[in-house]
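Quick note —
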Amino acid sequence: LSSIAPEIKIYAAEPLNADDAARSFCAGHIIADDAPNTVADGLKVPLKDLTWHFVSNHVTDILTATEEEIIDAMKLIWKRMKIVVEPSSAVPLATILKNPDVFKGKRVGVILTGGNVDLDTLPWLNN
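Predicted structure written out below.
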């Protein structure tokens, strides 16, 4: 996307409990995270060279969300859209809601997926 429209800002989002990309982005090199603990299990994979290339060359910033913010975003998507998304997919919405000034007055695109969710273990059922 940044090649087609270089003026577009690309924000990455990740759980605060698995924030190796955010820490790496700030440091300018990969910082390994070998034991992340997050409900967003699809984002537990550590940052590697291929992904780092895209992050370091195309991402404007990386925003993080707490576990509670991720679960609240999942619930909001369910309540408003009746779509069950996996926790990892709720992270971008959680960061948008947490950082409204970054996105105010802008067109924002978010991809929602739900393939990695077990309806019997939805995180808010434990709250």
